[in-house]
Every structure is written in C-alpha cells, then in structure tokens.
Amino acid sequence: MRITLMIKRLFITCLAVLAGLPVLPANAESTHVTMGGKGISDPYFPTAGTIATSVNQTRTIHGFRVTVKSRRESISVINAVISGDLDFGVVHGRRIFQACNGLVGWEGRPQSELRSVFTVQAEQVALITLAGSGIRTIKDLEGRRVFTGGVRSDLRDTVMDILKAAGIDPHRGIRATGAAAEEAPGLMMDASIDAFFYLMGTTNRAFWELVSTAEAVRLVPVSGSGIDEMTEADPFYEKSIIRLKHFPYFANTSDVDTIGVKAGLVTAARVPDKIVHTLIREVFNRVDEVKKRQPAAVVMTRAAMAEGMVAPVHPGAETFYRQSGIAHSLLRP
C-alpha cells in the first residue's frame, strides 16, 4: 500500500513537471491556505467555497489545500486578510476601495498591504415580494414597508444606491426596516414587510422556507433608466440577469433583469507569489465549472475577471496574467 502510494505520487509529480506546473515538496500537502467570505448565508462565502473547490482538485500536484472560513461582513474579511488570520478573501469591491484609500471603516488608515488577485460578480440584487403585494417595479416600493439590511452592511449600502438611482428617497420614500439579512424571509412570512432586498448568489434555505407559505413569491426587476445610469456611472455595479433555472421557486415566468455587485478576491503582500500564481491558474482553468456552481457568476469570463481590480495586483497574479497573455487593469473610481 505504501509503495503504491509512493508510485502514485511520483507519477503525478512527473506529469506536473511535463506540464510545467510548480511542484512543492512532498510534505507540502499538509499546507493549509485560508480563504474567507462574509456570512454562510451570503453569496461571498459560497463563492469562496467554489474557488476553494476548484483549487483543491489538484492539491496533490501543487501541494496545498484551501479551507474556507466565514466572517460577518466584508470589512472583517479584509481586516482578517491584513492581520494574517486569512490568506485570501472574497469581498465587496467598494470595501476594497475604501480600505485602500483609508475611508469608511479605515478612516485615515489606508491598507497598503492589500493586493488584488481577480474580480468576480459574487452576487446579484434580488428584490422579493409576495405575488399579491401589487409591487411590480421599484417605483411601487414608495410608501411600502421595505427591508433594507443592517446598518453599515454591504446590503444596506447597495439598497441606498438603488433607491436613490430610482428616484426614491431612502429615508422618506419608504418605510424602511433594518436587521440582519437572514431575518428578511421570516419578516415577510410574518407579514411585517411588503418586500425585501437580498444579495443573492446561490440557492438559500431561507427562500425555501419562504415559499412554503400559501402565497407565491415573485422577483421584482431592478431596472429602469435610473438604474441604467447608475451602472454606467458606478464601476462597482453592472447589469445582470437572474436565471430562473437556478431559482425555480419564484413565481416569475421569465428571467429577471437586475444588477450585479462586483467583488474581488484579495490577498496580502506577504502571501507567497507561488501560492497566488497557482490559485489563480487553477481557477482560470475551471471558469466554466465555477459558473455552474455559482449562479451569480453567469457573466464571468477570464477577461472580465482580470478587469477592474481595485487594490494593486499581487506579483503572483501579475506573473500569471503576463504568462497567459491576459490583459488586466486597475479600477480608477
């Protein structure tokens, strides 16, 4: 058995050398690389899990395993990456900008050690209501009870931007309710709200619980001229489509227009180039698999993943892009 295992490892190593892949020492398989995303029920955590799954498929060749940990918000994920508690993190694009420039959450303390690896659309904005609510467009939210997320959460910031773009005063135009995002479905089941915003990337148990109620649940399009102008002017948002084949429990009969929130995979300057290079290579080699596992990543392409990074690009990622002939760019908000 031991001899067979040794032969198997030798065979894999030979294949790796022939393919030009970096080979780490035999005992490096025990090396653990950590990656974080906010909230188990939020899209960022499953996105981190999808990335980890892609990388771990060839762990016997490259020599490390990625494990995924959750944090409460993007701010705490970035802080964990900077402090060394995490090696990588999937976070909201605007939070990366704020961290690099010493803004909200890091006032006067630019996080100069933060580095970009690639961008990804981790989540889509879902506006959800009951079929009998009479809410068919964003404008129909005026005067209604609307869940907008917790204070200083990624969801709250996004909802504020959407309402303003749609011409609705987020403080006076609706009757806003704020709490942790996972509480929203329960509030609707209790008839405490008329609609709620949710950042959605994967199927979620909360939605299955919600559709167990007698009345059908609908998605309301997040679209219109104001929204179009917002996605053109704000680099952290882009147009997207919620594909019902991924979310069959909604009563809609066709796919729904919405916006996607750009996120990024970040790391710290201290993380070895080889680790970063290997991780990005494995993910880029399996983009189609990632898209199947992560519905919000439906628009993901290799070219798009290399565009609009906010923090300086990590040298390991720079090397990969150069060797692969993939043009990459930094975002200049």
Structural class: alpha/beta
Task: Summarize the main sheet.
Answer: 10 strands, mixed
| CATH fold assignment of the largest domain | D-Maltodextrin-Binding Protein, domain 2
Number of helices: 13
pLDDT averaged over residues: 83
What is the helix fraction of residues, given as a range? 25-40%
Q: Order of helices and strands, N to C?
A: HEHHEHEHEEHEHEHEHEEHHHH
* Low-pLDDT residue intervals, each spanning 5 or more residues: 1-29
CATH superfamily of the largest domain: Periplasmic binding protein-like II
- Give the overall silhouette: globular
**What's the structural domain tally?**
2
Q: How much of the sequence is in beta strands?
A: 15-25%
Straight-line distance between termini: 58 Å
The level-1 CATH class of the largest domain: Alpha Beta
Architecture (CATH level 2) name of the largest domain: 3-Layer(aba) Sandwich
DSSP E strands, number: 10
Radius of gyration, Cα only, in angstroms? 21 Å
